[in-house]
Amino acid sequence: MIVDCNLIALNSPEDILPYPATKSGLLDEDKGYIKYGYPSSSFPVLNMPYILEDMEGNILPPGHYEIVLSPDRKTLYFVESKKIKASIPVAKLIEKTVNEEEERQKIKEQEKLAKKYKNGKRKKPLDQTERKKQADMEASIDNSNPQYYILHYKNGNIKATGYILK
C-alpha cells in the first residue's frame, strides 16, 4: 500500500503551534507602574452597599458601578461591565465655568516643560494630569433620609445629584 504524503519544512516553533509564542519576561500588565497605576476610566466608581429596587420590582444588587453622566446631563447611569444597569434622573446640576487665564497658564507650563526636556539628557518627570483628573472624581450614595437615597456625582467641574426612592 502506497500513501501519498506531503512533507512540510518546519523552521520555527510558530510553524507548529496554532497560536503565537510569547516572549519570556514580564508582561506589561504585570509591571508595577501599570498594575498599581490609576485606572483608565474617566468616570468615578461607586461602591454601593444597598439593594435598590424600582416600582416594577427590578433589583440592582450591591456592587461596584461606574457612575456616568449622560451627554445631555439629565440622567445618571449605573454602568457595570460597559452595560447600563440603571438610570437616575438628575435633580440638581452645578457646572463651574473654567477660567481662561488658568487654562492658558497650564498650557504655558506644559510647553515650558516640553521645551526644557526636549534635547536634554535628564529624565522628564511623569505627566500627572491623568492622576489629577482621577483625584478630582467621586461618586457616593447617602442613606441619611428615610424616604430616598441621595446619589452624589462629581467629575472635574461638574457636580450632579440624583434621588432614588426607597
Notable traits:
19% helix; alpha+beta; 4 helices; flat; disordered N terminus; 166 residues; single chain; seven-stranded antiparallel beta sheet; two-stranded antiparallel ribbon
Largest sheet, described in full?
Answer: 7 strands, antiparallel
Order of strands across the widest beta sheet? 1-4-5-6-9-8-7
Count of alpha and pi helical runs: 4
Structural class: alpha+beta
Mean pLDDT: 78
Low-confidence stretches: 1-15
Shape: flat
Q: What is the distance, rounded to the nearest whole angstrom, between the alpha carbons of the first and last residues?
A: 81 Å
Give the tally of β-strands: 9
Sketch the topology as an H/E string, one letter per element. Answer: HHEEEEEEHHEEE
Layout of helices and strands:
Elements lengths: L12 H4 L15 H4 L9 E4 L3 E2 L5 E2 L2 E7 L5 E6 L2 E13 L4 H17 L12 H7 L1 E6 L5 E8 L2 E8 L1
Antiparallel strand pairs: 1-4, 2-3, 4-5, 5-6, 6-9, 7-8, 8-9
